[in-house]
Amino acid sequence: MKISKAFLAAAAVALSAAACGGSEQVVLLNGAGATFPNLIYQKWIIDYNNANAGVELNYQSIGSGGGIRQFSDGTVDFGGTDAPMKNADIDAIGGNVFHIPTVLGAVVATYNLEGVSQTLRFSPEVLSEIFLGRITNWNDARIRSINPEASLPNQEIVVVHRSDGSGTSFIFTEYLSKVSTDWEETVGTGKSVNWPVGLGGRGNEGVTATVRQTPGAIGYVEFGYAMLNQMPVAEIQNLEGVFVSPSIDAVTAAATGAMETMGPNTDFRVSLTNAAGTGTYPISSFTWLLLRKNYDDASKAEQLVEYVWWAVTDGEADAAELGYAPIPSQLTPWIRARLEQISVDGTPVWSGQ
């Protein structure tokens, strides 16, 4: 499955073009945040802007940390994050936030090994030891033991990680913390952590480029970026001991168990990493839009809610092509209930009509 390399260039052109026609007033809606969902967010925004002359949406891919910060500071109308806001951060803005899940995605281990055509496998132990800097060569016996068919070179492993505050890092480090006590105790979980080893790249884009340009490199990126650049992705051993490749079905399977703990009044901040199930890909996650419960501008609030509802209904048809799994249909009425609560001065701006 390929994504046109002209896609991102087209996105940049479309998003910079004025959406207004004639004298019609255009509502400008600015968002910023996670790079994890950027491929599908740009596709949605292009399509929505083209179909709705009265609104111009813009989303800047700056990382989840930046998205939470700008949303909390009020400098954007909506944020994007793969790491749900902490209770303390929500309290700091008076609880004025809804987390709206948009798609599910996978964080994948991608690598640059010339001459290795087989798909590599990583156990939780091996993956954590590589990123801890304790496995330093590709022909290490622990890698070879789970990849007996691969001709692994006597080559140094170059770890590549994010340099910015990142929801992708949050997902990856949350997974490593669940499967490795050493990782949990020495590095931990976060959008930004003190990486034991490696080179830093900004955004999924930066990590992807660094891995592609660095022989012997291994890094973690959102699945869609690996697809776009036709990069190899590893199979990861899940909680049941099965090595699973990232796929739409495997990511969707990760949400199955989580759905049992959710209900109509959930705030959607649910972890999917290292989920149970034989077919589950273990480094999976929701990604969320951050919307205010209460807005000051009725026009902006109404247009934003209309867009988000379109995205989580009609827009879901674009998910699989870009490497994401659509949100489970069970969530749609719960999301609608949240959107119907968004208000200006206590008056809801949208009734779903």
Written overview of the protein:
- With 353 residues, the chain is of the alpha/beta class.
- The protein has two domains: 6-104 and 285-348, Periplasmic binding protein-like II (D-Maltodextrin-Binding Protein, domain 2), CATH 3.40.190; 107-253, D-Maltodextrin-Binding Protein, domain 2 (3-Layer(aba) Sandwich), CATH 3.40.190.10.
- The chain has 13 helices and 14 strands.
- It has helices at residues 6-16, 38-51, 64-73, 87-92, 124-131, 141-145, 167-179, 181-186, 203-213, 223-228, 248-259, 298-312, 332-339; strands spanning 27-33, 55-61, 78-81, 98-111, 121-122, 158-162, 199-201, 217-222, 235-237, 243-244, 284-291, 325-326, 343-344, 347-348.
- The strands form three sheets. Strands 1, 2, 3, 4, 6, 7, 8, 11 and 12 form a nine-stranded mixed beta sheet that branches. It has a three-stranded mixed beta sheet with strand order 5-9-10. A two-stranded antiparallel ribbon has the order 13-14.
- Strand 9 and strand 10 form a beta hairpin.
- Helix 1 packs across helix 2 and helix 12 (298-312) packs antiparallel against helix 13.
- The radius of gyration is 20 Å and the shape is elongated.
